Amino acid sequence: MNQTAYLWRPAPTPSLPVRGLDARLPVRRIFCVGRNYQGHAIEMGTPIDKATMRPFYFIKDAASLVETSAAAPARVPYPPGTGDYHHEMELVVAIGAEGFEVAEADAGRLVYGYAAGLDMTRRDLQKRAQGQGRPWDLGKNFEQGAICGEIVPATGQDVLDRGAITLQVNGHTRQSSDLSMLIWNIRELIADLSRFYHLQPGDLIYTGTPEGVGAVRPGDRLSGHVEGVGDIALDIGESA
């Protein structure tokens, strides 16, 4: 059998551990939901009217994924080009089945499991892009900017619709809310996103962050928790 020849070795497939299994979950794409908690939307200056507005999304490259856990915190360097590096604690949904134009009532069958995650953000670059009417890529999609814990397999087709979500920085609580405060819940997000993409196993959906986002600096320890899912930790290092 002929094998494809490459000019250099292809990058390894990004993946995450799965609780209770030796096999890992290969990550295909990372979709992120913007402003999906009203408190965060207000602190960002744009309240959300669900009756007249739709969810919106941005994408992080799967290569930006960093695996972490409370027991073995990852360490990431303070990223280049920013002086305002922010944390955003989120519930992450892992897709485990194909789906296109999925009905809300059927969305649960696409959910493989959940994880706790951090959507790290170069806030100054994001705000600059917003002010100029440009995409958010420099502010959101950068190396080691998608932090994620182990995948916890879901049971049946029930989706998470409540549970505490919190983040502490150096032991002080910064973010504290509940998954019931999501503006668009998991079923609604899967149904909406599947109108625009053929969702595939290995896709991740970062479902949005509650209010309380803020800057972190080298030497900070971030500790996050999602009730029923798990805990993660992250150390911020010096600029690389």
UniProtKB/TrEMBL annotation:
Gene3D superfamilies: Fumarylacetoacetase-like, C-terminal domain
Entries under Pfam families matching the protein: FAA_hydrolase
Source organism superkingdom: Bacteria
GO molecular function: acetylpyruvate hydrolase activity; metal ion binding
Fumarylacetoacetase-like C-terminal domain span: 30-233
Keyword RNA-binding: no
Name of the molecule in the record: Fumarylpyruvate hydrolase
Taxonomic placement: Bacteria, Pseudomonadati, Pseudomonadota, Betaproteobacteria, Rhodocyclales
